[in-house]
Predict the structure.
Amino acid sequence: MLRFECDYAEGAHPSILKRLMETNMMQTPGYGTDDFCKSAKEKIKKICKNENCDIHFVSGGTQANLIVISSILKPYQGVISADTGHINTHETGAIEATGHKVLAIKSGDGKLKAAQVQEVYEAHINDPNHEHVPAPGMVYISHPTENGTTYSKEELSALSDVCKKYNLPLFMDGARLGYGLAAADNTLNMNDIAKLCDIFYIGGTKVGALFGEAIVITNPALKKDFRYNIKQRGAMLAKGRMLGIQFDVLFEDGLYFEISKNAVELAMLIKETCQNKGFKFRYESTTNQQFPILPNSLIEELSKKYAFYPWEKYDENNTAVRFCTSWATAKENVQALVEDINKF
Amino acid sequence: MLRFECDYAEGAHPSILKRLMETNMMQTPGYGTDDFCKSAKEKIKKICKNENCDIHFVSGGTQANLIVISSILKPYQGVISADTGHINTHETGAIEATGHKVLAIKSGDGKLKAAQVQEVYEAHINDPNHEHVPAPGMVYISHPTENGTTYSKEELSALSDVCKKYNLPLFMDGARLGYGLAAADNTLNMNDIAKLCDIFYIGGTKVGALFGEAIVITNPALKKDFRYNIKQRGAMLAKGRMLGIQFDVLFEDGLYFEISKNAVELAMLIKETCQNKGFKFRYESTTNQQFPILPNSLIEELSKKYAFYPWEKYDENNTAVRFCTSWATAKENVQALVEDINKF
Amino acid sequence: MLRFECDYAEGAHPSILKRLMETNMMQTPGYGTDDFCKSAKEKIKKICKNENCDIHFVSGGTQANLIVISSILKPYQGVISADTGHINTHETGAIEATGHKVLAIKSGDGKLKAAQVQEVYEAHINDPNHEHVPAPGMVYISHPTENGTTYSKEELSALSDVCKKYNLPLFMDGARLGYGLAAADNTLNMNDIAKLCDIFYIGGTKVGALFGEAIVITNPALKKDFRYNIKQRGAMLAKGRMLGIQFDVLFEDGLYFEISKNAVELAMLIKETCQNKGFKFRYESTTNQQFPILPNSLIEELSKKYAFYPWEKYDENNTAVRFCTSWATAKENVQALVEDINKF
Amino acid sequence: MLRFECDYAEGAHPSILKRLMETNMMQTPGYGTDDFCKSAKEKIKKICKNENCDIHFVSGGTQANLIVISSILKPYQGVISADTGHINTHETGAIEATGHKVLAIKSGDGKLKAAQVQEVYEAHINDPNHEHVPAPGMVYISHPTENGTTYSKEELSALSDVCKKYNLPLFMDGARLGYGLAAADNTLNMNDIAKLCDIFYIGGTKVGALFGEAIVITNPALKKDFRYNIKQRGAMLAKGRMLGIQFDVLFEDGLYFEISKNAVELAMLIKETCQNKGFKFRYESTTNQQFPILPNSLIEELSKKYAFYPWEKYDENNTAVRFCTSWATAKENVQALVEDINKF
């Protein structure tokens, strides 16, 4: 079985394992206060061109999301999110478990528009019963989205502007950030993101690491005492260096960006193949997730050899599916898939 | 600086890193449903002599504690714990953040006595105002405790009996379980623990792993839907195999127990040296943490060369300190320390 | 200004105030353990024809909802509700504040259909990623709904059946229960409701009381330790007798049902008037809330003299509004309103 | 049975019932936005000599405590309280249910000392592991305390100073505030309290009202969006006027202070009688709760005729008990009790 059903099917980039081996018996203090973490943070600050941001490492995306969001909101506030947002659909109510409603907004493609945030906020403050409804307290976006789509610099700037206007911190879930930056139509760099978002995280789990996400806080108002929140939610790794070492390797000599390209290039192979065969797509993705709408008979055939995810019924005879590539995807696997699609 | 201030100063046992390398590019499904996890679970079941227990892997101890406790308690219930318990003193209110009070009981040595649990429970149900107080809903113990002390089979049986009598699930935090089982005066084995506790966890972070704890559920009533709780609290690792691989190695050919002995043997060297010098101890520990009461002048001297933890002021001239050893502690480091103490 | 904007604009039924006066200086024990509460409970049991139900009084509807729901759900579970449900739209995230997601289902008229519950539940358990989504743990309905609509005996039975099949407790929010039972097309009685729901509450605040709701628990599994939950959420009134006295009066000689009729009769006057004028309705309500779609010019005119609630824009020239009547509504006020509509 | 076991055994002061009758059929808007509430707030502001404070009415003390505390604390913060504080001992973990640990400090008499707050705060920030412990985020006191003791102006000023120094909002639970102000040794007035506390509440439930507490916020930083919190916790009464009317009556012509005196005078009768008989007291109370240590034989005798609360075993033959008086206590009842004590 060749796996295209997710972007976390393999271990870590070999350079990471190598570094773990080399540093294994060195003694360091715990809880992320070691020199590996320091070094990794310096590299990330440099890439963000922001010397003053705070950086914290945690084990996974749901952890990052719930810690960030619960640290920002007041008890009566909710977080605005696309209805397709990971926090609204795939985290078993993790945000609600910290006491907050996800204020889900209809999204066709996984993205949130500045105008939508404005509309929701204005509707709230103009509602005579607004005290009977959770107040919007921040905005959550994912980039790339769960549907593989991305924000342009223009779109993100517009979102950032409206968020600043209404004093709503803008939080970007970058679980697949590398794959967004590697997209052919990408117009954002790390410095843009650091400028336009109040807080975001750089995904490691899906982009080369064994596990781990780097939370970057650029808004000074959100920095205070953040480590308490990490500890309270069970996300402060005793051997914090594990996370430091991984991000130190990932952000050495541009490795993070380099390995992201592989995923996107191979995804484009799949995309083009499907396009050439005349298949439509559920979403217009330029990143490592592709959502072609395939005939059920082809899906059945491919399922014998490849693992991938049925996404949504399209009609009686066709279904949208998801193929994921990653930093680790072997070109020969994609070539095999592409050939089998072409044979159809 | 030679580090004795904690038992998580190094990376992982080399066999674990070796296995991570060997398996790195294999493709597996996510979220702990892979074969490595399966294999590790089988080994743990065998050692527990319990084919029917459920096993789940999470990243760290606070995570394990908050997930287990919040999954068991009803909203109005609290968890009985020694006042020295990790959940009461070192988790930034993680249990309270899930809505529950820690019902802390005075403990001189880190242990909870069966009679204390009985007393607290009886006092509660006989209180005419009991509805105005959180109801005791379960019992938390750590073994070894935060003070290095351990439960005998007799003591644990007595606790188990009183818990069964009052229908209070008994939960053992085994963050340092290996070091407890390796103690010279140990009378418990894994099967005893599996029989006497309703739920417990086997610590990996402090005993050979990069990170990770194995939660073992023996009480069938506590098994249902446990994975939802893991996911909701942000503790379900996408690459769950990382945890499976580590525990698979640790429970192969008794490695976990073997490496635990190293820690305890070296701790005993420190203990005997202090005893021979006539120093008293804050707690009577037979495990990898030692709490000698040392003259401040000696502490000052040792601090130049060794990292260790000041625990508690004893009197004007003496302070209790903590020395930790671990599976990774080098004998020569302990010998150096011991010599320096002897020189005093 | 004549008020039709809510059903809680006046104080209490005079019989309640009279009883409060008569009993004022009597001494009773606190927290709802007094004889007035006992007597009120007996009356409610009799009317429900259920000797074994448990009854608890609390101050208001949001309180009742959050206590009931948080007492039933496990941490990872959510509550199924119509998207129009009070808990989803008018309680400032009170349910989320207790840690649970409201699983909102599209509803055109405020009602939830048995088929919808079945579909949601089946979709959940058949989702391969179901552990990544909050599990449905119970069903919340309001009767009458926030839109004035009601469940027929047949509909409620179907809901009850599907809930029993899936082991989902069925909870009815009866904030306006009296007005539902007084509807011309009503097919339910208190005994039906007690049989078909696992737990429900009888609204006092909107039906004759100063404040207060009576929670009735018929499912034995939901009864245990309920008072702890009431106390923990700050809903256990020290002078619990205040609630007992009020419900004792309301359920004496059918007063509750009698006064409910007034509201519905007067609402029907408004309904018929609007119908005769050819106005359409946003919802087909047979209870005390009416939602006619009125020309904006008429609304402007009426607003000078009457308080009522703009509900929803219909088109450029028309808006759906809400008129509420209650047990206290004066017939002459309705006659004035009706005349003014007729004049248009 | 003559009741001295609590200060909420009767209904409301007759003037309140009278006003409820007079205003019963007036129509008002809901949720505390009516003119009765406005009028009551004006009166309280005047008495506090503070035109800029915000005032909110809620139904009960636990509600007031949990709303105030959860609105102020950040998720990782706890509230400092005497271990005897109501929030720590009689609210079923209501504070923990909102996610926060009560940081309980040993108190002999129910009071918290400025030096204790300083010590706790300094210990926290100087703890190298402070991120592993909930941070002190505010201070809770009750005045009079649960033990009947009171703060002098000097003591409250010292507390206020240390709280300001450490940026810890000071919150006073004034469930029995009237009885504290009526004490012979009282040195505080409402203006002092408004100046020295950041937020406090004036208890109605135990001092003349049917139910209700008035939360007064003097620190501007704590005012924003407070009503959202009230609504979310289920404490926003639909007929908010019920609370407004009650406090409007209580603060008309000093009624609140007047009726408080009755309680204290009668309590002093009990106190003096016990003193004259040579009985000691568990606490030195100058307010409406008295805690004499009585011979068990006397307690047995009195129990036949009077309801009162056994507080704490003193020795084999003696037990501390609690007698409560209130605004409603009849002098003849106290005289009967006093005579029966004297007969002993």
